[in-house]
Amino acid sequence: MAADYAIHAENLAMVYGRGATRVEALKGVELAVRPGDLWAIMGPSGSGKTTLLTILGLVTTPTGGSLRIDGENIYDGKQPDLARLRREKIGFIFQSPNLIPFLSVRQNVLLPLHLAGVRGQPAEARVRELLGYLDIADRADLHPNQLSGGEQQRVAIARALANNPKIILADEPTASLDTDRALNVMRLLRQVTNEHHATVLVVTHDHRLITEVDRVVEVLDGRIQ
Amino acid sequence: MNLALRDISYHRFKFFSSTLGVSLLIMVVIAIGGIIRGVILDSATIINKTGADLWVVQAYGAHPQGGTLGPFVETSRLPQQVYHAIEAIPGVAQASPLATAWEHVEVMPHPTRLMKFMYINALLNTASMVKPGWMAMPKLQRFIVIGYQRGKIGGPPVIVAGRGIEASHYEIVADVKTGFQLGQHMRLGNFDYTVVGLTKNMVGFTADPVIYTTLVDAQNIIFQQDPNLVRSQRTSITKPFTELAATQPRLAAPLAATAAATAASTLSINAIAVKLVPGVSAQQVAQRITRWQHLKVYTAPQAVNLQLMGSNRLILFQLALFRDILVLIAGIVIGLITYTFTLDKLHDIAMLKLLGAPSGVVYRMILQEALFMGIVGTLVGSALELLIEPYFPRRVVATYGDIAQMLAAMVIVVVLASVLAVRRAMHVDPRSVLGGG
Lengths: 225, 437
Known about the structure:
heterodimer, A: alpha/beta, 6-stranded mixed beta sheet, 6 helices, 10 strands, about 30% helix, globular, B: alpha+beta, 10-stranded mixed beta sheet, two-stranded antiparallel sheet, about 55% helix, about 15% strand, elongated
């Protein structure tokens, strides 16, 4: 049943350019990921991983196929409010933490809640809970430039979790970390899938992580192998 | 959570140093507005404070349009007794004969440190424009003498120290800008005078301060010639009558005396300030004076206009144009600062968009920062202008109304200036946060 999947993509295609400059970045991608699954998407540079991630993250509109996120048919003919869907259903984690530098740790985590209209005590309680969960409560009032790389990545994970998203998309989250820290991040993501029942898709080149995920999907020349 | 305030707070040095630059620009804009208002007030002060409805001056010949622009812009000279005829015209409540002229006294220069600074600054600025001696520090105190009949309009409107003129002779009331002190004596014309009172803000359209005397004293100061000159003139004036003595011996001496007295007479005035009975048409009375008394008449607004647009027109236009250019520059500077601030935040804007921030959140952040800069810049600039206003050599009058206008103008300028930044933010692609692969 399609409604049982957190992500259900059918025959997804993405074509850039026309004529001689036409590039098929994705061809007939089929993907069905259940809630609570932790998948890795792997593949060489230029294989279409990031294009797939941007389509699943609702920042790129595919040129073909259909996509359901948390049971909601995204491109069903109506103009989708992609910004709202991103706010409510998707959390992002990146290779670099991409925290907003002029906001404190607490405010960075508060930001997605604020954008979703969650204010006051419930928002503050959620931020406290997440900072405690990720063991960075004592850094709440610092700015990102006052944190170590690992701490910044934890803040980024807290921010991604703030709105209780159904899906977390992680783009090379361990690329700049040593093995121990990379494994720690992956264990944290596993914990998130277990405790928050969120679906996590990790785009990575990092073969050290294969043992930590439920399934590895390999993208090659725009197709899932 | 206000993102604009968070950004300002985090980048406070960058933001406030930029805002200070904007403030200084706005300070100059408001100061130029104050200088313009000062020129306008200087051009209108004497006319307004005198309270006359009409100003009667010398006409030229019989042409109805002919007339001097006196008494302040051109020389105007009338027989004193004319004012009696004007006073008799129905609708005239009061006709006050006035004698006015620019005069000076020689004073020992003891400029303040501020004045020295301004002088040196002026010297440096004009070094390549002047020849030796052109910029020597003046040792003269120039002022406008206004002589009036006590009890009639035309005297000092307010006394800020001392008293008004009470004696018939040798007392003056001076504007504080002359630098004269109460009790100070000075020689004007052929007599010595004592400062008995001080008035304030009474200056002519050239910003020269005013001193008041009785009409008779002013006539002496302005019209009385040097006694030696009078004596030598008397010889040449009475010479034709000595030849007449051979044929008309009883007539020659009185005629010679009359001619000499007429030549030396000071019974002239420069203008008549006319106050009308309330409700009487100024135009009708003016027409009647022009037609029957062969004089030129200006209403009070016309008299101000002569000084403002006749003498100060070009400097006024130049200043107004310069102010417009500065407002434009302030707008461009704020626009560029806002745009640069936005360029610095493109990555953060992309991140906000990726997190699902509605476009309004991003645009509001840009606009609020620009507005904050414009409003704080205007308020700080206005405060600075009010602080330095008293130190300008000429009158500078910026009002709270001017500041409110500037604030409104800056809001419009800032909104327009941030359009460029908002357009740039609109084109930020949230995918730019993600890598490739």
